[in-house]
Write a structure and sequence with these properties.
Layout lengths: L1 H42 L4 H22 L3 H5 L2
Helix pairs in contact: 1-2
Length: 79
Amino acid sequence: MEKDAQYFMEYIASRFEEILRVLIFIGNIAAIITIVIGCIMWFSRFDPNGGKRLLLYGVILAIIIKFLATLKLPSIIMP
């Protein structure tokens, strides 16, 4: 019975890790796109204030994603 529970927890932790990797990948792409669009808007003078805000939000998103990538959350679930 304990082996089954242990196997189930390892399975859940591995699936959670895969989902987390995909979300980190999507977050990195979103941060890059946000930064690029912000720079384009700022430097083309289309909407300088909006571009600066997008640039700032993209950098903040990239920092949050880097922080989440270093947490190793599945190891918290399964020591």
